[in-house]
Amino acid sequence: MKLDKLNEFIKFMNENDLCELEVEEEGKRVRLKKSSQDHPVIVSQISPQNKLEQSREPEKEQGLVEINSPMVGTFYRAPSPGTKPYVEVGDDAKLGDIICIIEAMKLMNEIKADREGKIVQILVENGESVEFGQTLFMIKPI
Fold this sequence. Notes:
By secondary structure, the protein is mostly beta strands. It is 13% helix and 40% strand.
């Protein structure tokens, strides 16, 4: 992405008093974030071919089922920092068990398992932003 385009985004952020902006264009995603009013804008560019992105793709094994995010927010594996995560890979989740928290607009939303199964893969890192419908877990139904 060209510097002129990035400067336009920064100007747009400043004019609209935005703290964060994420734009996807031509297969590339750019995220701009102000750490505070006194600090410069931090720029990170993420390519869809990024190895980290590829390693988090859900396994396409037969019989695995996705558990997706019901909202946009911040993903947390545990009820508070330093405590044990709700689930780990290999754990059995029962219908209605809390498996994570998604913080949205300063509200902590408990996400519950919508089916029983064994947690096979956790696709999101603690503290990472998630989108509506994004796959969080892969489970093998019991």
